[in-house]
């Protein structure tokens, strides 16, 4: 015969502990299934590409970590961080610099074709920023190291035309000289009327 009497569960018993854990899990599931609160009015979205950064990740902290790791030679880690920066904050203040440093990292790894692409991305996505001259020079230098001599010469000449007084102009002229090309750049003719 089956006993249908209910027994009182002692507060310290295993069954009471399981009941408490089940209650905690149920509460956590309800909390996690609720949509996040909307940001206060006037706060811009974190990313303009619709990809939200993980909780607790800000543009400033990600940038500082990436640059610190780049500066200390942690190339793989900084590459991931710069990539994340561009994924989550593609139009933030340091986006052009993050793209530029990715080009430098590819150059350090002797992946020159990838470096050219990264520097090209700076020039295409962020054409008017402080890293434009460095990216153009970096592209030319990466092309030279990749063995694309004629293309490198063209880019070095473009660099000298656009940034003749830049600190890297001397290096560009020397590279052109080593390529057997004059470091002199013809002035751009005035537009015809």
What structural keywords apply?
single chain, mainly alpha, Serine Threonine Protein Phosphatase 5, Tetratricopeptide repeat, 8 helices, elongated
Write a structural description.
By secondary structure, this protein is an all-alpha fold. The chain has a domain at 59-178: Alpha Horseshoe (Serine Threonine Protein Phosphatase 5, Tetratricopeptide repeat). The protein contains eight helices and no strands. The chain has helices spanning 14-33, 59-71, 75-88, 95-108, 112-125, 132-145, 149-162, 169-178. The longest helix has 20 residues, at 14-33. The termini are far apart. Mean pLDDT is 82; it is low at 31-47 and 185-190.
CATH architecture of the domain at 59-178: Alpha Horseshoe
Helix content: 55-70%
Strand content: under 5%
**Anisotropy-based shape:** elongated
> What would CATH call the homologous superfamily of the domain at 59-178?
Tetratricopeptide repeat domain
Q: And the CATH topology of the domain at 59-178?
A: Serine Threonine Protein Phosphatase 5, Tetratricopeptide repeat
Helix-strand string: HHHHHHHH
Number of β-strand runs: 0
Biggest sheet statistics:
none
Rg on CA atoms, Å: 28 Å
CATH class of the domain at 59-178: Mainly Alpha
SSE inventory with pairings:
Blueprint: H1 14-33, H2 59-71, H3 75-88, H4 95-108, H5 112-125, H6 132-145, H7 149-162, H8 169-178
Helix pairs in contact: 2-3, 3-4, 4-5, 4-6, 5-6, 6-7, 7-8
Short précis:
The protein has 193 residues and is mainly α. The chain has helices at 14-33, 59-71, 75-88, 95-108, 112-125, 132-145, 149-162, 169-178.
């Amino acid at each position: 015969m089956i006993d249908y009497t209910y027994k009182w569960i002692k507060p310290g018993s295993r069954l009471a502990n399981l009941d408490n854990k089940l209650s905690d899990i149920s509460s956590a599931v309800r909390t996690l299934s609720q949509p996040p609160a909307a940001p206060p009015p006037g706060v811009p979205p974190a990313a303009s590409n619709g990809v939200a950064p993980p909780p607790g990740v800000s543009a400033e902290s990600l940038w500082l970590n990436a640059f610190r790791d780049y500066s200390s030679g942690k190339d793989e880690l900084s590459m991931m961080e710069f990539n994340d920066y561009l994924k989550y904050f593609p139009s933030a203040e340091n986006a052009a610099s993050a793209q530029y440093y990715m080009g430098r990292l590819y150059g350090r790894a002797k992946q020159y074709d990838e470096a050219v692409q990264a520097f090209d991305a700076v020039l295409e996505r962020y054409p008017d920023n402080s890293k434009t001259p460095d990216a153009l020079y970096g592209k030319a230098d990466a092309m030279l190291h990749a063995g694309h001599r004629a293309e490198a010469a063209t880019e070095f000449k473009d660099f000298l035309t656009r940034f003749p007084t830049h600190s890297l102009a001397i290096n560009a002229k020397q590279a052109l000289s080593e390529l057997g090309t004059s470091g002199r750049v013809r002035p751009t003719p005035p537009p015809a009327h």
